[in-house]
Amino acid sequence: MPAEHPRIHSFAEYEETYRRSVENPEQFWAEMAEPFTWRRKWDTVLKADLVGGHNEWYSGAKLNITENCLDRHLAKRGNKLALIWEPNDPKTRQIRYTYRELHQHVCQFANVLLNNGVEKGDRVCLYMPMIPQLAIAVLACARIGAVHSVIFAGFSATAIADRVNDAQATVVLTSDGLNRGPKQIPVKRVVDEALEHCPSVRRVIVVEHIGWPVHMQEGRDVWYHEEVKDASKSCPAEEMDAEDPLFVLYTSGSTGKPKGVVHTTAGYMVWADYTFRNVFQVQENDVYWCTADIGWVTGHSYLLYGPLLSGATTLMFEGIPTYPDAGRFWEVIDKHGVNVFYTAPTAIRSLMATPLDNVLSYSLDSLRVLGTVGEPINEEAWYWYHQHVGKERCPIVDTWWQTETGGIMISALAGISPLKPTHAGQPLPGVQPVLLTQEGKEIEGNDEEGYLAIKFPWPGMIRTTYGDHERARQTYFGPYPGYYFTGDGARRDENGLYRIIGRVDDVINVSGHRFGTAEIENAINQNANVVESAVVGYPHDVKGQGIYAFVICRDGSCNSESDKPHVEASIIETIVAEIGKIAKPDKIQIVSGLPKTRSGKIMRRILRKVAEGETSNLGDITTLLDPGVVDEIIKGKK
Ligand code: 6R9
């Protein structure tokens, strides 16, 4: 019988635990790691390097994360539900797997991967709808030591190709199509288009999901159901080093090209489990639901790994919050008796905008804990969530973290810590946040604002960016040597609670999804009509931030007002092809020039103010090469 993991039960215990975790981190994290299944224990708990970014946790240990997600639970929880799948269409069949069944499915697909020549260390890309096979495949990769790289199924063929090529993946898993509310999308076709440019891929495994006809390329493509049919339901887990990569997940930064954030095995495991148990305080018989897609980090850590490591029952939802109507989330909560619910502020805001009856017609009696993630939650949305969903009895944990942090960093512990709307709260044990001045000086005391950085390693931290460590070093450890730099600005209130204000770099957060302004500009500049563009974020009621693009057109391509709609539509088409629909700008303004300094730098500060509608206070514009363009831009504001 596995030892049970300790959990924090009271605020006094939190304070004591936090103190211990900071005073003696190595001893603390050794204790927290103890109850897992290890093939071999570590030699060293931590090798820290916040300058070069070469941090290691539990070096020398051997393990397999799936033995900890699955095998470890079989004796006690073999017949407990591990995964509940709720389909897009509420009238179609749900699927439920016990821990024992999930274990068998994972082993079976692990054997399929092995039969198809996948070896330890190979990269496997997954471009899939939110269906059980995606969860199974992620775990199957981990079972055999292949590195999974899930690509959100809204990305375009070009974006897939970029990621597959960067990771040099040999195998891709996809499906015939996907359901998204009332729509069906031919996923395999998108993959086919991408793979024309991906010479490393030699096998595509296709799940039959919506029954659409697909083209199967001879010698490359095989059907999931055919491969699985005769595969054995047992598969010994590959023995992995603590620091062997577990997955790569691409995320946007302030430069043009998305980076492959690499997480490794042992530290990520300990972190996902520790943060899940303590933040959400999930109880043995709870049903837990995280609405994130597995294509994002939240789906990795809090739909799959965290809950399964803790032996919880996790719900996976294929659909969208507004199908068949805007009461779907609440209907699913009542139907499955969901106790803990974790979603994004953008979803809350979009549902708030629909008639209140959508939520009031459900009991929501089962709910005990609510959570949010991905972006700052505004006060109005917080109170609506608290009142109408949580019926003023459920604590809301506002969890701040990033793809790079692997798991939650700053958050209340449900039912334990004080709550303050719009504040993420206090750091979890092991997390040592600081506020820095722009020059990198630590700001002491409370009631202060600054750049959020972390001054000590934690087990779930990013290890590198795939294939290019220098990029990770420069991005995260370069700006302030000795600190991990988050890219976020934050405020510490008079009681030491953190409030995340937003990005301080050129990253826009649209509905909780990150985009680099340079990434969108690169896409726009692919359009034949475009000479140059500049993209900024602006406040948006539902999405948090909207995308505002200022575009200069080539001579002759946009001569009159009547040309504009056509050019704008063509720019949108280019962005959808280069990145995907999720990066569609909300506003495009065609301009004849951009505000630039004499050295040729675009002054985004000015464009941001214009986009925000704050044109009365543009600050100093005398350093501009041509201050005249500013007037024109203000006049043409959308
Ligand atoms: C988990 C995730 C990370 C960025 C992060 C910050 C923003 C996330 C937040 C939040 C305010 C919260 N962010 N959680 N801002 N309050 N509770 O979202 O990862 O996609 O990498 O985004 O999201 O700006 O830097 P990722």
UniProtKB/TrEMBL annotation:
Residues 71-457 form the AMP-dependent synthetase/ligase domain. One of its GO terms (biological process) is acetyl-CoA biosynthetic process from acetate. Its EC number is 6.2.1.1. Gene3D superfamilies: 3.30.300.30, N-terminal domain of ligase-like. It is an enzyme of class 6 (ligase). Pfam families: ACAS_N, AMP-binding, AMP-binding_C. Keywords: Acetylation, ATP-binding, Ligase, Nucleotide-binding. Residues 14-69 form the Acetyl-coenzyme A synthetase N-terminal domain. It comes from the Bacteria. InterPro entries: Ac_CoA_lig (IPR011904), ACAS_N (IPR032387), AMP-bd_C (IPR025110), AMP-bd_C_sf (IPR045851), AMP-binding_CS (IPR020845), AMP-dep_synth/lig_dom (IPR000873), ANL_N_sf (IPR042099). GO terms for molecular function: acetate-CoA ligase activity; AMP binding; ATP binding. Residues 519-601 form the AMP-binding enzyme C-terminal domain. The keyword Nucleotide-binding applies. NCBIfam families: Ac_CoA_lig_AcsA, PRK00174.1. Belongs to the ATP-dependent AMP-binding enzyme family. This is Acetate--CoA ligase. The gene is acs.
